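Suppose a classmate hands you a notebook page containing two proteins, each written out with its sequence and a corresponding row of structure tokens. How would you begin to make sense of it? This section walks through that situation. The first entry is reproduced here exactly as it would appear on such a page.
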Amino acid sequence: MVTRKEVALQAGVSESTVTRVMNGGYVSPSVREKVAKVIEEMNYRPNLFAQGLRTKRTYQIACIVPSIDNPFYGEVMQGIEEVAIEHGYVLSMYSSRVVNKSPGRSFFSGRNDAVILLSPGESRGWLLRDLWEAHMPLATFWDWETEAPSPSVSVDLRIGMQAAVEHLVSLGHRDIGYIGYMNPARAETDRNPRLTGFKESMAAHGLRTHPDQFQYTADRGSLDAGYHGVEELVGKFPGLSAIVTSNDLLAFGAIRWLEEHGIHVPEDISVVGCDDIAYSALSNPPLTTIAIPKREVGNHLMNLVLSLIESRKSHHDGSEHIQVPIELVVRSSTAVKRTNTE
């Protein structure tokens, strides 16, 4: 097996320089290129077990997601993995449903060098507290209007939802329904930016909202929730001509129910999603949606925890917050509202 010392001798540099190249530390571009070439030619692979004994690291990052069946989180994980692999880390993914049944400190202690939380919901109170007490390096993808308590990556979903409503209003829609998630136990304390943006944009256009326009799901947004949610919404708000959903899976489920009941999208009802998962461009019809750059989000999250690990700091030592821009992608699921004469 090729050793780090052999790589250093072949490249004409010190072992510490090879280490910096492997860990993404600073070296001159010419030295980095030379060392990288030798690493590739000699097919050098570091012994992570031995390295972990020296550095007291596991080279493993725990990623906690609300739902493992939502493709959104898989795409974010790809972005995390891209950076992780470059630095010799592996990922473990847990559903928050599993984590909620386990004490956080004992669950992660000794197993991981850091934790990445994606859209922490019900678990964020006790879990964040447990991780703080354990001084575990932590970064979050934060999608609520409250301030993130640790280094985080966020997107302005309030602005995104405003853009969605603006688009529908420009097409002549006035009776617009909303399908989204709300945790009843935290409804008054959590500020949901999707819902806030929807209501603010409706008000800005002089459009009143009524409770019948809103349908809240019991989960974070699945195909099944969208399918049954739109049935409830149409039943109590029969005049609607457009629907905004808080994620793409809800939109897909809603479209399926509408088409099964002879209500065509977008001819009869326009539909807008949120997330722009890969299936959105291939759905029938292709979905208009708020696009979140998921792999970029993942890249930033992994870089945040790497910075904490390398500096031997936890989230207590100052919080860096990165906001990633989003945009509305207009596709074929939205159209000009039909008039009574059409």
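The notebook's second entry, a different protein, reads as follows.
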Amino acid sequence: MILFALPALAAAAYYVLALIAAFQWRRQETPDAGGAAPAVSILKPVHGRDPRFYEAIRSHATQEYPEFEILFGVSDPEDPAIADIERLRGDFPGLPISLRVVTTAAPNLKAGVLGALAAAARHPVLLVNDSDIKVEPGYLRSVIAPLAGEKVGLVTCLYRAAADSLAARAEALGIATEFAPSVLVARLLGQAEFALGSTMVLRGETLREAGGFAAIADYLADDYQLGRRISGLGYRIRFAAPVVETNLGGSSWAQVWRHQLRWSRTIRVSRPSGYYGYVVTHATFWAAVAFAGGQWWAGAAALALRMAAGVWIGAGILGDRKAAAWFWLIPFRDLFGFAVWVAGVTGDTVDWRGQKLHLYRDGKISKSVNLDPNR
């Protein structure tokens, strides 16, 4: 019967590591850039108008920083987000804000648009983040400062999610209490070759050395691939202190399932060993197995540590106050997440913004079938 307890104990040990990683994160010092504030080009690839889009892009325009520009790129001249971009240009006439309509044959439209924006950028430091990312005052200085560190090639940061529906709230809870702990544990164990699309700060010369965005235009996980290439050149990837916010909108359970399945299958082909090793982190499932086998002490330990680490990291580090208020939903979201993980073990197609993409073993993609854009 002790066999029923072993997976739960492994999950408990994982969340002990998450608690240790959270403690170390709290102790990290903000690097001193020595007053340096290099000019920055903010590259914003846009595909459709996300909820609270204007609020997100305005948070970049209001940054107090000596010199920066914002470059937006769309692949569709009729993109509904263009109206908000033009509004931003009108509200901030003194800020260099440009919009480019990019024609690209890249399977990853985002990478194709980023390639065009990087070529048009005027400044030596580039900042890339997703179109729906909202940032706090002081963000620019805080994420650029670590780039001054020795052999630092890329700076990234954690993120939390805002949500409107119960389904989206469950997904946001997973980001705050499951995904973020996995990132901290990976850093604790020395796996620091990845970047997050929430923020990627790098020098233009480093990007060119890594092959530019053209080198990752065939991959779905462009942020992971960029981080891996820069790490492979001998550079370090640093996490900055700010936590940014993405918006999940009013997603249905079907939309959440497709989004999470895309994410799951992308991780599987990008980092297979990490994906299959991730099975041990599903503490709620293994706690249920332990309970079914009469090993209540093991199940209780796994569930308690999972809840404690999730709430501490979600609410205490990410600043997601709803992670604490909705803590009771964590076990139910975990079981949904385990079902997604199981479904992600197989399959070679993913849905991305109205397109069905074929996913290959090496993480590359090819376009397949256009779907209903409202999906």
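A careful reader of the second entry would note: The chain has 14 helices and twelve strands.
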